[in-house]
Amino acid sequence: MMNSKWIKAKSDKRAEMGVGTMIIFIAMVLVAAVAASVIISTANSVREQAESTGSDAVNNIASGFKVQDVVGEIKSNKMVNITIYMRLSAGSPNINMDNVMVSVTTSDNSNYLSLDPSDRDTPVANTTYGFTKTLDVQKYDEWVLGQGDLAKITITGLSIGFNQQVIIKIIPAYGQMSLVTFTTPEQYSSQFITLS
Description:
Number of domains: 2
Distance between the termini: 123 Å
Shape: rod-shaped
CATH superfamily of the largest domain: Purple acid phosphatase-like, N-terminal
CATH class of the largest domain: Mainly Beta
Structural class: alpha+beta
Helix content: 25-40%
């Protein structure tokens, strides 16, 4: 007959508890790895968005024009043309003038003008402005203004009399608007007068 001691299994369950603990530990490591992956992915996304926002902020703050001079042309005691000489503000990226609007407001009239790149030398009164580079340092396309370039905007078809306030806004697609304001003199003494 067999000894019953040898057939009886031990009632020690410590090994089963060790396997359960190991399964829970592995599950926790897997959950932590997935959470770390999500956190790293989110951090990369936030970093890219912050870089994009920073670049947009720099463009919005630094972009724009510095007006050097404003000259009016007089015919028959009326200011008929205004020429604005300008360059980019310090730190401004290149600006495509095709994306720039010019607003001209007088006591009699208010117009928004755009650039016609196909005929930028011949502005149409109350519709388009003329644009010419007077110094082309960067050698970009004819209507792209870069650092160091000098340019002039020509506004035609005006009829501004004596002692009138004129407000001109040069508005790029993004960045700072340039504001030119002046009051015409009480009499015009020559064909060309400096206004600002």
